[in-house]
Amino acid sequence: MTTERVEEKVRETLNAVALDGVRAPGDLVEKVVRRRSRRRFSQAAGAAVAVAAISVGAVFGFGDAGRAGQDRPVRPAASPATPPEGWKPWQSSSPGDSERGCLVDGSALYCSGRTYDTVKIDANTGERLWTVEVNREGDGIDRPFAARDGVVYAFRNHTAENQPDGDYAGGTDLMAVDAENGDVLWTVEMPQDDRTAQAAMLMDGAVLANTPSVRTVSALDPLTGKEKWRYSWDKGTVCQRAVLGGVPYLLCARDVEKPDGTDVLRLDPATGSATKVTTLPGMQQLIGTSGDRMVLIAARGTDGGDLRLTTVSGSGERASHPYRINGPQAGSDVVGDRLISVSWQGKASAYSLTTGKALWTRPVGVGMPDQDAMQGLASPVVSTRQGVVYFLGQDGDLSGLDLRTGEQVWRGHADLRTPRPGLADTPQLLLYGDVLVARNGSKVVSLLPRTGG
Amino acid sequence: MEASSHDEFREFVAMRSTALLRLAVLLTGGDRHAAEDLLQIALMKAYGRWARIEQHEAYVRQVMYRQQVNRWRLRRHRAETTVPVLPESGTDADAGAESELRIALWAALGRLSKRQRAVVVLRYFEDLPEAEVAALLGCPVGTVRSTAHRSLAKLRVLVPELGPEGPAERVQPLSYTPKEVQR
C-alpha cells in the first residue's frame, strides 16, 4: 500500500472512531476548580511549572572562546570553586541518553533518555559507562531519582508483552539497577504513571514507593524489591509523602476543596505502623524538606499571594511564618534553610525558613522563559561550600548569586544547542562538587564556574 | 478569577468540553480516564489565565498536545482503563474487511508512542500541515516529518494488511546518529 493510501486509511480510521458516546461530564468545571485549588499553593509558589523549550544557546563559554563577558567572576565569591580530582571540562551530545533528566551520585551521572532508561556517565570525563535500554519508548521528565549502596533507582515503562494476552498499554515500573554494571536487579509495577518525587523515595533500609495501589505506600527491600510492609489510607483522603532522617511521614487530608486539617503521620520504618504526630490547619502543601523538617505551605487569604510557611519536625515541633509573594513564580525550591524563588519578571528571592524573613530580592541574571508558552526554569542549585546559588536560563545562560546577599558573583554560558533539536525537554542544572552540569535534551555540558578569584 | 471570567469559563466548558474530550480520547489512544485527565489539566492551566488568553480553544488544544507529548501524567493502571471505542462494523464483505482493517489500525494507533500519536492525530485527524504541527508542538518541521514517517512505518509493522512500502517510495527515515562523547 502506498504512503498516501496508508495516510488515507489512518485518516478514515481516526474519523470513524465512534466518539459519539464520549461526552464530557457535567461537573467538569467543578472538578477542574477543585483540582486547581489543591494545586494552588504549589502553583503560587512556583512548584508546578510546565517546562517545554528548545535551547537556543550560543557559544560554549570555556576560556575566552565564548561571548564577551562569559564565565567571569563578577565579584569575588566567599570561596573559590575547585574541581574534583580527575575532572576536565566536557560536553556531550548523545541523543537518547539524557533527555528525561539526570542524577549526580558520587563521581557518576545517572541519566534517562529516549533510548535508555538509565545511562551511567563518568562525571569527570563524560564517558558513557553502561546503559539500560528503554521498554518500548522513552519520554517524559522522569530521571533516576536516587542511588545508594551501589544501586540506582529509576523508572521505566511497564510492559505486559510476555503475558498470555499482554501488550504494552502504558504503566510504570520502579526499577533497581546495579550501579557497577547496569544489570536490572528488580522491577515493581506502580499503580499509575506518576514519576514525580512523590512516587518513590529512599528511607531507612528500604525504598518507600506509592504501590501497589494509589492509596498505599510500601517499603520495598532495596536489593530484592520484596515488600516489607505496606500502609494504606482511606478512600477520599490524599496523602503526601516525605522522609526525614530515614523515617517516612505522611501528610494526609480529606480530598475536598477546603479540608479542615492536615494530619502528619509518622510511619515506623520497621513495621509501617502509623502514629499521628500533629494536625495542621487546612490544606498544607508539602514543598520540600530542610534538614530534619518538612516545609509546608498554605493559603492564609483568598488571593493566593498571602501564604503561610510552616516547618514541622519529626516530633511535631512546628514554626509558622507569613510568606508574601507578588504574583505567580516561575520556580521555587527549598535549598537548605532557604526557599529560593524566581518571579516571571526575572527577580530571584531568598527567604529564611528558620526566621521567616525575606533575605533578598535580586535580578536572577539569566533570561526568563516565556510564561505563556508554558516554559519553565530549571531548578537552581546551591554550592554551600562556595555560598553561591546557581541558575540556568533557557538559552544556556548561567548565573551565580551570593547566597547571603543575592549579589551576582559569576555569570557564564553553556552551549546547550543540539545538532538536530527534537521535541522540547526540560532543562536541568546539577552540581558535581563545585562543578556545574547543565543539561537540555541530550546535550550535557560540565564546567567549572570561575568564582572567587 | 473574576465572576465574569468564571462564567465565561463555565460557558466555554459547557460548549466545547465534549469536542475537546473526544480529541483527548484520540490523543490518548482511547484511554477515557487518561483523556479526561488530560483535558482537566489543560482546562486547569487555562482557568488560571483565562482573562489573558485571546483564543481560548486554541490555547486549551495546544496545552493538550504539548502535555501529551512532553510529560508523564497520572494515568490509571492498565486494568482500569476503558476499552477504546471501536469503529462501526460494516455490512457486506468489503465493508467487513474495511471495518476489520480499521479496527486493527485503531488498535495499532494505541500502540504508538505518545509523541507519534500526537503527530498522527494532528496530521491526519486535525489535517494540519507539518509547519503548523511543528509550531504547536514546539519542534522543527523535520521532527514532525520524521515522526510521521516512523509512525506510518510502525503501523505497517503492526497491521500487516497495510503491506510494505513500495520500493520507489522507500526512503531512509531521518534518525539521530549517536556521537562519541566530545571531551
TrEMBL record, chain A:
Entries under Gene3D superfamilies matching the protein: 2.40.10.480, YVTN repeat-like/Quinoprotein amine dehydrogenase
SUPFAM superfamilies, A to Z: Quinoprotein alcohol dehydrogenase-like
InterPro entries: PQQ_b-propeller_rpt, PQQ_rpt_dom, Quinoprotein_ADH-like_sf, WD40/YVTN_repeat-like_dom_sf
Lineage top rank: taxon: Bacteria
Keywords: Membrane, Transmembrane, Transmembrane helix
The keyword Transmembrane appears for this protein: yes
Keyword Cytoplasm: no
Boundaries of every Pyrrolo-quinoline quinone repeat domain copy: 120-317, 329-452
Region annotated Disordered, chain positions: 68-99
Transmembrane segments: 44-63
Record's protein name: Outer membrane protein assembly factor BamB
Organism of provenance: Streptomyces paradoxus
TrEMBL record, chain B:
Gene3D superfamilies: 1.10.1740.10, Winged helix-like DNA-binding domain superfamily/Winged helix DNA-binding domain
The organism of origin for this protein: Streptomyces paradoxus
Keyword presence, Lipid biosynthesis: no
One protein family per Pfam: Sigma70_r4_2
PANTHER family: ECF RNA POLYMERASE SIGMA FACTOR SIGM (PTHR43133:SF50), RNA POLYMERASE ECF-TYPE SIGMA FACTO (PTHR43133)
UniProt entry keywords in alphabetical sequence: DNA-binding, Sigma factor, Transcription, Transcription regulation
Any Gene Ontology biological process: DNA-templated transcription initiation
Molecular functions per Gene Ontology: DNA binding; sigma factor activity
Entries under NCBIfam families matching the protein: SigE-fam_strep, sigma70-ECF
Protein name (Swiss-Prot/TrEMBL): RNA polymerase sigma-70 factor (Sigma-E family)
